[in-house]
Amino acid sequence: MSIRPADEEDVRRYIEDRTDRHRFLDHLARQRGILLFAFGADELLGHVFLRRAAAEEAELRAGLPGVPLLQHLWVIEKHRRCGVGTRLVREAETRLHALGHRRVALGVHPGNSGAISFYEALSFTVWREDTLTTFREHVQDDGSTVREEEPCLVFVKRIEPPPSRGRR
Fold first, then answer.
1. Cα–Cα distance, 125 to 17 (Å, whole number)
2. If we measure between CA atoms, which residue out of 83, 25, 16 comes closest to residue 49?
3. Beta strand segments in 11-144, E
4. From 30, 91, 112, 150, which residue has the greatest number of CB atoms within 10 Å?
5. pLDDT tens digits, one per residue of 71-105
6. Which tens digit of pLDDT belongs to each residue from 48-69?
7. How is 2-46 classified by DSSP, letter by letter?
8. What is the pTM of this model?
9. 81 alpha carbon, distance to own chain's centre
C-alpha cells in the first residue's frame, strides 16, 4: 500500500460520489489542507482529509485553536479491517507533526460505535462529553447543496514524533 497527497486531477479520477468530489475539490481549491489517498497497485483503497484551515465551528476555533482536524476518513468496504484506516491516520499524524502540529482532533457521530472504538484504539480521547453541532453538505442531482445539522463527539490526540528508524 502507498499513501500520497491527492490533487484535483486525482479527485476527478477516483472519487465517484458527487458530494465527496464537490467537498474535496472545494477544500483543495481553497487550500484548506491535505487530502491523502491510499492505493493498492492502481486501486484507491481509502482517503482522509487533513484540515489545517480554521474549523467552521466557533466552539472548535475557541476550544482547540490551531488544532488540525482529520475529516472524511473512508476505506473501500472490501478493504476495511485490513489496516488501511490505521495507516491513513498514522500517515496523517506523521505529516501533521512534521508541519509543527502537536495535537489533532476529529468528529464522530455519537451513534457510530465502530468508529469510536477505532479512534479510541488509536489513543484518541473525548475532548468534551457534550456533542457539538456540525453540518454536513449533500450535493443534489441538480448540483445544488443542502446543509444538514449533524451531532459529533469531538476526539483529540497528542501527536507524538514518529519512531526513529535507526542508523544505517
1. 30
2. 25
3. 33-40, 43-51, 69-75, 103-108, 125-126, 132-139
4. 91
5. 999 999 888 889 999 999 999 999 999 999 999 99
6. 999 999 998 999 999 999 999 9
7. EEEE--HHHHHHH---HHHHHHHHHHHHTT-EEEEEEEETTEEEE
8. 0.90
9. 17
